[in-house]
Amino acid sequence: MTRKQRRSVLIATCVAVLGVAVGLVLFALEDSIVFFYSPSDIAEKNIKPGQRIRIGGLVEEGSVKRGDGTQVQFAVTDTAKTLPVTYIGVLPDLFREGQGVVAEGKLGGDGIFVAESVLAKHDENYMPPEVAEALRKQGVWQGAGQAAKAN
Amino acid sequence: MHAFIRLVARDVRLTLREGGAVSTALGFYLVVVAILPLGLGPDLNLLSRIAPGVLWVALLLAALLSVERIFHNDLEDGTLEVIALGPLPLELVAAAKALAHWISIGLPLVIAAPILALLLNLPANAFWILLLTMVTGTPAISFLGSVGAALTLGLRRGGLLLALLVLPLYVPVLVFGISAMNAVITGPASFLSSYLILCALTLATVVLAPIAAAAALRLSLA
Amino acid sequence: MADTPGFFGRLANPTFFLKLSGAVLPWLTGLTVILMLVGLYLVFFFAPPDYQQGETVKIMFIHAPSAWLAMMGYSIVTIASIGSLIWRHPMADVAAKAALPIGACFTLLALITGSLWGKPMWGTYWVWDARLTSVLILFFLYLGLMALWQAIEEPSRAGRAAAILAIVGSVNLPIIKFSVDWWHTLHQPASLTRLDAPAIHPSILIPLLVMMVAFTALFFVLHLTAMRTEVLRRRVQALRLTQVDAARAGEGARA
Question: Are residues A22 and A3 both part of a single domain?
Answer without folding.
Answer: yes
